[in-house]
């Protein structure tokens, strides 16, 4: 008798808002670094499209908790930390693509930077477009320029942060609790953006372990 497939784990918005990043690298299991390095080097050495498709869809089948168990406790500025953050962003986006696209579009409309171009989303950005973008960013880790994929993810986060902050301002008068939630989420996106940018810099220096 075969085991039943593991149902993917959904997480509440509060899970993302409470996300604080990794602990000090000295306290992180070597396993996280070894598995991340082995996975990335093997796939990038032979980027078979079928294998990459399965890696992208891995959390859809196994749940975000399967990735979290491996990499979520790694330092924010490490290879497993970067992989965890991008898988987390993809899971968050796919869990509510309508809301994610609404927030992203708001951030893109307000942006005075090149972040919309760097992120590479189609315009306008609806639920299908935001889902495709999250997949493209993750795919770029395995078959494209790794640092560029991190830069795209960082731009994505900055736009989401801007969108959340703007929506928080809109909600402040009528729903202070919702405004506080959106402000917290904006800060989390901004923090992850900075961490991914740092990882891209380290990768270009051949120093991202």
From TrEMBL:
Name this protein carries in UniProt: DNA-directed RNA polymerase subunit beta
The species this protein was found in: Subtercola boreus
Domain of life according to the entry: Bacteria
GO cellular component: DNA-directed RNA polymerase complex
Keywords for this protein: DNA-directed RNA polymerase, Transcription
